[in-house]
Design brief:
0% strand; 78% helix; mainly alpha
């Protein structure tokens, strides 16, 4: 059973690292630093700010989950759940589902570690 947990943990780490890199490069870094001449973070619509908050929460969860699996897993799942609430639908594409899987695996591994 421990080998299954180890494989799951490393799968979550690899997938989570790839997803954190993709989200950071595609969403977080451009919004923070590369908004262009017309970028005005205070002038963005509330929905845009909420979407950015969901992505930032998810990326933070992906970054800390290898060290603190349960907290990271909760941040990942919380960020994605809030994303679904803000958008009103499950986002299409290759970013949502692998990130969701990594969050669930981190949470399961953290729970397994806590229960022995």
């Amino acid at each position: 059973m421990d080998s299954i947990v180890t494989v799951a943990r490393w799968t979550a780490r690899v997938v989570g690292t790839v997803m954190a890199a993709m989200l950071s490069v595609c969403i977080v870094i451009p919004v923070l630093f590369g908004g262009g001449d017309h970028f005005d973070p205070l002038g963005q619509l509330l929905r845009g700010k909420l979407l950015f908050a969901t992505m930032l929460t998810t990326v933070i969860g992906l970054v800390i989950a290898p060290k603190w699996e349960r907290i990271g897993g909760l941040l990942i799942l919380g960020g994605l759940a809030f994303l679904v609430v803000v958008t009103g639908d499950f986002p299409p594409g290759m970013i949502f589902w692998p990130t969701l899987a990594a969050g669930l695996i981190y949470l399961a591994c953290g729970w397994r570690r806590a229960t022995g």
